[in-house]
């Protein structure tokens, strides 16, 4: 059976379809998913444009009720949807369920935000005139999402877009269409009017490009690689469309001599290897002071050795497979690059065989590395981390900030002085003290600086900046 796209309120087949393969068991085909062509994308955008006037000015209670219904169904089905997610993406079942719950909480949050929208009124510099600032929706928004969070990232783009009165056309990554398709079914069932929400699965080079270049798409929100992000930004700039990009990271976790060793090791293990390291917030650089270095490396390698790498759905599995052959090749290639650069592979990096054929890779840790090495400057996006030894806090901060990226930055220390200084001086959008660099709350801003992000923040109330435009009204009451 082929799962269909949702266009103009109807489920439609595409000219083509693609199989969704389970990375934990490549013999397991989850299903086939339609691939839209350019004409179908144009149809979805036209339907969204036609639906926008009524949706953006319609009763906000109806909007809030629909988003709450979406949240309720996601939460009620968290086990089943979490299992589907784990099956198509390869993160473990508990991680999959956790991600589904995050998606439900996001819809719940934005159901509330619908009725909390407000403007601002201030005094005019000209006597007798009222000045007010209000926010209005952008119009049709195009959402392009990656494979590593197949329900949470769509949720944190769709929920605010709809809450603030926009119409949505979403394109999920081809590798993981099932979770977004299930979410689209839920949104459709919640009674969102025809054209307000469309799902167009298919290739980035066809569906994604058409959305980016479409004159009726007012704004594009994208999460994915730096190269694709830059290409999308250029396309949007050429037609002056609003754009928001969330891209890579090379996130440092600083471990000072006074850190609690167990906390630091747990932060590193979680941040670097959970979700198979396939998180833009992953702690890929472990910047460790010399006094704690050896005990930290010993304790971390012991925990890595004990980590159960297996089928995402196997009981007790703690780390699932890499998403596909091409990402696995990229990971293995960087392991070779690291060796070639003179780094010491302290542990891991071997391919693993499990009961089912999948892309299983041992977590890998490099030591004796230097921050200038490619393995410390380029995003690998797999279970590969490096230790960079430093003499003191000042050097640790310099190394942490010496990267083209700036998404998340962490420090493990017992010192309030260093923690406070790090919070102020880390060049990143998110800073963590005695916590992993990955794993964030759903109701506060998410995003980074430098090469990690472009445009305004996602999530929480800050999402309004992207999904609305400000209008300043002047009135002379007569
Ligand atoms: N920051 C993050 O969260 C993520 C970062 N990455 C990084 O990117 C690398 C490659 O992953 P990959 O999945 O190829 O990332 P991409 O940036 O290629 O994909 C992200 C999304 O963009 C779409 N897309 C691809 N090309 C275009 C285009 N020309 N115009 C519009 N949309 C497009 C993709 O579609 P489709 O896939 O269907 O072709 C997908 O939906 C990873 O190894 C990792 O380093 C990847 C995922 C998430
Ligand atoms: O760390 C998280 O919880 C979110 C990470 C993320 O959004 C990403 O990798 O794209």
TrEMBL record:
InterPro entries: Ald_DH/histidinol_DH, Ald_DH_C, Ald_DH_CS_CYS, Ald_DH_CS_GLU, Ald_DH_N, Aldehyde_DH_dom. One of its GO terms (molecular function) is oxidoreductase activity, acting on the aldehyde or oxo group of donors, NAD or NADP as acceptor. PROSITE patterns: ALDEHYDE_DEHYDR_CYS (PS00070), ALDEHYDE_DEHYDR_GLU (PS00687). The keyword Oxidoreductase applies. SUPFAM superfamilies: ALDH-like. Transmembrane segments: none annotated. The active site is at 246. Pfam families: Aldedh. Residues 11-472 form the Aldehyde dehydrogenase domain. Keywords: Oxidoreductase. The keyword Ribosomal protein does not apply. Belongs to the aldehyde dehydrogenase family. This is Aldehyde dehydrogenase family protein. The lineage of its organism: Bacteria, Pseudomonadati, Pseudomonadota, Alphaproteobacteria, Rhodospirillales.
